[in-house]
Amino acid sequence: MAIIHEGLSEEFKYVTKETEQEHIGSMFSSSDLLMQEIAFNLIKGKNIEVYDLVKKALDEGYEANTVLDDGLIAGMAIVGVKFRDNFIFVPEVLISARAMKAGMEHIDPILSASGAEPVGTVIMGTVKGDLHDIGKNLCIMMLRGGGFTVHDLGVDTKPDEFIDAVLEHEATVVGMSALLTTTMPNMGVTIEAFEDAGLREEVKIMVGGAPVTKNFADEMGADGYGSNAVECVQIAKEILAVKG
């Protein structure tokens, strides 16, 4: 099933990269009008509507994971693309995040009660010297929705703080974000710190942020690079060889 919701169809026009059109389009391929209505209202930041629609879907017998994947996460994927490409800015992202949180009020208790094992444990943080966190927080939201346990170290995160968190939580993935060209090198410094600590082989490291490129990530020795919040989940699963 293609996108049949008129408003959502207009929002999808903001997704212009062919690979993203395929990936995000596939997220809506099996969704019906109700799921697409949830996604559309999330994009528009209508938290009350999202709260009510998610409850309606669950009451009608939709699986919690279906509502999460086809409604909330799919909608947030478009928000991530619009934010990256400067069609929307921090206030709009925060409003959409509030709407997703409203929907998760119904989803979280169901998922917790199911006792499902997490896909993996991820440590996330913005690198030392950088105080930007909106993109990182989008990734965290998507990773949690994708089944990962995520520990957020916040901003201005020193290399030893990443290392301590990996040891404390027995994490298998580290995600680093930077929004400034002046702080990007601290990603490499952190990777070197893991090498010096003898932990580099124990953890997979993925990086992202507006100025970060795949070439830069490769030069630093990162295991994965994502240009948006959707790719963050995809890359985490790929580097852990997780199916789905």
Report on the structure:
Helix 3 (33-43) packs antiparallel against helix 4, helix 3 packs parallel to helix 5 (64-84) and helix 7 crosses helix 11 (229-239). The mean pLDDT is 94. The radius of gyration is 18 Å and the shape is globular. The longest helix has 25 residues, at 90-114. It has 2 domains: 6-114, Methionine synthase domain (Methyltransferase, Methionine Synthase (B12-binding Domains), Chain A, domain 1); 121-239, Rossmann fold. With 244 residues, it is an alpha/beta fold. Strands 2-1-3-4-5 form a 5-stranded parallel β-sheet, with helices on both faces. The relative contact order is 0.11. It starts with 5 loop residues before the first helix and ends in a 5-residue tail after the last helix. Helices cover 57% and strands 9% of the residues.
Structural class: alpha/beta
Mean pLDDT: 94
The CATH architecture of the largest domain comes to: 3-Layer(aba) Sandwich
- Rg on CA atoms, Å: 18 Å
**SSE string:** HHHHHHEHEHEHEHEH
Total domain count: 2
CATH superfamily of the largest domain: Cobalamin-binding domain
First CA to last CA: what distance?
A: 20 Å
Counting DSSP H or I runs of 4 or more residues, the number of helices is 11
How many β-strand runs?
5
Poorly predicted tracts of residues: none
Sum up the overall morphology in one term.
Answer: globular
The name of the CATH topology of the largest domain is Rossmann fold
Q: What's the arrangement of strands in the largest beta sheet? A: 2-1-3-4-5
Strand content: 5-15%
Text of the CATH class of the largest domain = Alpha Beta
How many strands, what sense, and barrel or not for the largest sheet?
Answer: 5 strands, parallel
Helical content (DSSP H or I, runs of 4+):
55-70%
